[in-house]
C-alpha cells in the first residue's frame, strides 16, 4: 500500500441530509457492480465498511484519551491507513480480499466477552467482499469516508439513519423468511419489564440488536453517576446465530456507544440447561425464532420430557433456566401456538407457572409483523416467584378505522399509551377489567391443561385469538346446519314438483 493521503483539515458537518446523500450515492455506486444483487447484498457490504470506518474513529478517540490503550486493528489494516491510500483498481481489490479481510478474521484477543479483537474476528469470519470492481470499491470507500463519526452529534445522526437502513434490510430479508420486532413493540416491552441499573440484561436471539439497544438506553436514562454508567455498559449480553444479523447488531452497538457488551455469535440453545442455570441474568427481552426446528444434538440439551424440535419451546425453557438463580423477569414474544399447545407445550407452561409468576399476556393484533407473517403473536410477561391468583390478559386493539398493520402504516408507540396507563407501574397496582383487559384464574388455566389461548369475554365478536378447536367445531356445526337447510330445500322442491 502507498502512504495514506492527507485528510482534509475539516470535514463538513455530517447533517442528516448530508448523510442521506452520502448513503444514496454509495448505493448508486454499488448498483453498478456486477457482484451485488439487490439490497440483501448491498446493505451488508455497506454495513461492514461503515463498521470499520466507525470503529477506527472510536479507536482513535480511545488512543487520545489513554496512552496505554492498545488498538484492536493496527498498521495498514486501519481504516485511516488503507481507506486513505491512492491505490485503486485490481491492487485495491486484492488488498481488501487477500490481506485486509483475512487479517480481521485471524485477530485473537483475550477470549473474555467484549474483547474487540475476538468480536471483530467473529464478525468477519463470515464476511466477504462481494464487489468485483476495484475501481467501484475505491469509489465506495471514498464516499463512505465522508461520514464523520468523530462528533457525538454526528454519531447520533448516523444511528438514526442506520435504523432506517436496518428497516430496509429487514424489509428485504422478509422475502427470505426472516422478520424482526417492530421498534415500538420493543420499546413497550422494555419499558414494562423496566431493567434497572445493576441488572444484567440478555437477548438470546438478538437479531440486529433491537432489544439490547433499547435496554441499554432505558438503563442509561436511569444512570446518575459515571460508575452507574459503566455498570450499564457491562450489563448487556446477547447471542445471535446468523452471521449477517450479528454484523448488523455490532454496527448498531457501535453507533449507540455500546462498547462493552458481552455478545457472541452462536446458538443460545447449544449448551445443556444446567449450564444455562449456571450463567444467570436478571432480565431477558427477546423475540426468539418460531416455526423452526433444531437438530437432535440441540434437543438433547433439554430434559427428557421436554425435548422438542420446535424452537419456541426450547427458547422458553432456556429463558426460564437463565432467570432462575437471579430470580429474574422476562418479556418474550411468542406465536399463538405457544398459547394453545397442550402436549409438550402444556408441560413447559406448567413449569413456567410453577416456578414463575406469569402475570400478563399481551395479545397482539394481526399484521404486527406484516408483511412477513400474519401469524397472530403475543407477549408473555413473567417474573420469578409464586403465581398470582389471576393471569391478566390484555388485547391490544388496532387503531380506529384500521384492519391491519402494513409496511406503510406500521405500529406506533403511542398506541400503547392505554395499556401503559392500565399496567399499574412496576408493581402492577390497581389493574381493573376493561374492554381490552380481563383476568383468568390461574387454577382454571391449570385445570385446562395450561391453555392460555383465552378469548376476550368483553368482545364476543373477536375471532383473531379464538382457539382453533373452537373455530373448527363452530365451522362444522355451521356446515351441518347448512346441509340440513339444503336437504330440506331439496325435499320441498321434490314435493312441489310432484
Shape: globular
Oligomer: single chain
Helix content range? 40-55%
- The class by helix and strand makeup works out as alpha/beta
CATH level 3 topology of the largest domain: Rossmann fold
How far is the first residue's CA from the last residue's CA?
101 Å
**Do you know the CATH architecture of the largest domain?**
3-Layer(aba) Sandwich
Number of strands: 9
CATH superfamily grouping of the largest domain: Vaccinia Virus protein VP39
Strand order in space, largest sheet: 3-2-1-4-5-7-6-8-9
What radius of gyration results from the CA coordinates?
A: 26 Å
Low-pLDDT segments, ≥5 res? 2-10, 174-178
Tally of individual helices: 19
Q: In CATH, what is the class of the largest domain?
A: Alpha Beta
Please summarize the sheet with the most strands.
Answer: 9 strands, mixed
- Could you tell me the mean pLDDT? 85
Share of residues in strands: 5-15%
**What is the string of SSEs from the N terminus onward?**
HHHHHHHHEHHEHEHEHHEHHEEEHEHH
Taken together, the total number of domains comes to: 2
Amino acid at each position: 500500500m502507498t502512504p495514506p493521503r492527507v485528510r482534509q483539515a475539516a470535514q463538513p458537518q455530517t447533517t442528516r441530509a448530508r448523510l442521506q446523500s452520502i448513503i444514496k450515492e454509495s448505493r448508486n455506486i454499488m448498483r453498478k457492480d456486477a457482484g451485488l444483487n439487490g439490497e440483501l447484498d448491498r446493505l451488508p457490504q455497506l454495513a461492514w465498511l461503515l463498521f470499520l470506518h466507525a470503529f477506527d474513529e472510536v479507536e482513535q478517540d480511545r488512543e487520545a484519551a489513554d496512552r496505554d490503550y492498545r488498538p484492536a486493528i493496527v498498521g495498514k489494516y486501519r481504516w485511516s491507513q488503507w481507506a486513505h491510500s491512492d491505490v485503486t483498481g485490481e491492487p485495491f481489490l486484492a488488498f481488501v480480499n487477500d490481506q485486509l479481510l483475512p487479517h480481521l478474521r485471524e485477530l485473537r484477543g483475550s477470549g473474555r466477552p467484549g474483547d474487540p479483537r475476538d468480536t471483530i474476528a467473529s464478525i468477519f469470519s463470515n464476511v466477504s467482499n462481494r464487489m468485483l470492481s476495484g475501481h467501484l470499491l475505491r469509489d465506495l470507500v471514498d464516499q463512505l469516508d465522508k461520514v464523520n463519526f468523530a462528533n457525538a452529534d454526528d454519531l447520533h445522526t448516523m444511528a438514526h439513519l442506520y435504523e432506517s437502513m436496518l428497516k430496509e434490510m429487514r424489509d428485504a430479508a422478509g422475502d427470505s423468511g426472516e422478520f424482526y420486532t417492530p421498534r415500538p413493540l420493543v420499546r413497550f416491552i422494555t419499558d414494562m419489564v423496566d431493567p434497572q441499573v445493576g441488572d444484567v440484561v440478555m437477548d438470546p436471539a438478538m437479531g440486529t440488536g433491537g432489544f439490547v439497544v433499547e435496554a441499554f438506553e432505558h438503563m442509561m436514562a436511569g444512570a446518575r453517576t459515571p460508575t452507574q454508567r459503566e455498570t450499564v455498559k457491562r450489563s448487556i449480553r446477547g447471542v445471535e446465530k446468523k452471521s449477517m444479523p450479528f454484523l448488523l447488531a455490532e454496527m448498531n452497538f457501535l453507533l449507540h456507544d455500546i462498547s462493552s457488551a458481552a455478545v457472541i455469535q452462536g446458538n443460545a440453545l447449544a449448551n445443556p440447561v444446567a449450564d444455562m442455570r449456571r450463567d444467570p441474568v436478571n432480565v431477558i427481552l427477546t423475540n426468539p425464532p418460531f416455526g423452526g426446528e433444531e437438530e437432535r444434538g440441540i434437543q438433547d440439551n433439554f430434559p427428557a420430557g421436554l425435548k422438542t424440535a420446535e424452537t419456541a419451546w426450547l427458547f422458553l425453557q432456556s429463558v426460564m433456566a437463565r432467570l432462575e438463580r437471579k430470580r429474574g423477569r422476562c418479556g418474550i414474544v411468542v406465536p399463538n401456538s405457544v398459547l394453545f399447545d397442550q402436549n409438550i407445550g402444556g408441560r413447559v407452561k406448567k413449569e413456567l407457572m410453577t416456578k414463575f409468576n406469569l402475570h400478563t399476556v399481551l395479545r397482539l393484533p394481526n399484521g404486527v409483523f406484516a408483511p412477513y407473517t400474519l401469524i397472530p403473536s403475543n407477549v408473555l410477561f413473567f417474573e420469578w416467584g409464586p403465581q398470582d391468583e389471576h393471569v391478566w390478559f390484555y388485547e391490544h386493539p388496532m387503531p380506529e378505522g384500521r384492519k391491519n398493520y402494513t409496511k406503510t402504516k406500521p405500529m406506533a408507540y403511542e398506541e400503547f399509551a392505554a395499556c401503559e396507563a392500565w399496567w399499574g407501574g412496576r408493581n402492577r397496582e390497581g389493574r381493573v377489567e376493561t374492554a381490552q383487559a380481563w383476568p383468568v384464574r390461574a387454577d382454571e388455566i391449570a385445570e385446562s391443561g395450561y391453555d392460555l389461548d383465552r378469548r376476550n369475554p368483553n368482545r364476543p365478536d373477536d375471532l383473531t385469538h379464538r382457539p382453533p378447536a373452537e373455530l373448527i367445531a363452530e365451522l362444522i356445526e355451521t356446515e351441518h346446519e347448512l346441509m340440513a337447510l339444503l336437504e330440506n330445500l331439496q325435499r320441498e322442491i321434490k314435493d312441489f314438483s310432484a
